[in-house]
Write a structure and sequence with these properties.
By secondary structure, the chain is mainly α. It has a domain of 37 residues. The chain contains two helices and no strands. The longest helix has 17 residues. It is globular, with a radius of gyration of 11 Å.
């Protein structure tokens, strides 16, 4: 687990506050995408550098 990845407990706390729309984000990928955003802001890397594990 990297620093960008959330524990299940952290995810269950955050999940109810994230919007699920008719056209996205898709619930099955929401955690993966959210962790990608965390990675981006923690590292200061560019969007194109996001590891494949985050989508």
């Amino acid at each position: 687990m990297t620093r960008a990845q959330l524990t299940d407990e952290e995810w269950e706390f955050i999940k109810p506050y994230l919007p699920i729309g008719r056209f996205g984000p898709y619930p099955e990928r929401l955690r993966q995408q959210f962790e990608g955003v965390i990675w981006r802001f923690r590292t200061g890397g560019q969007w194109r550098e996001i590891p494949q594990e985050f989508g």
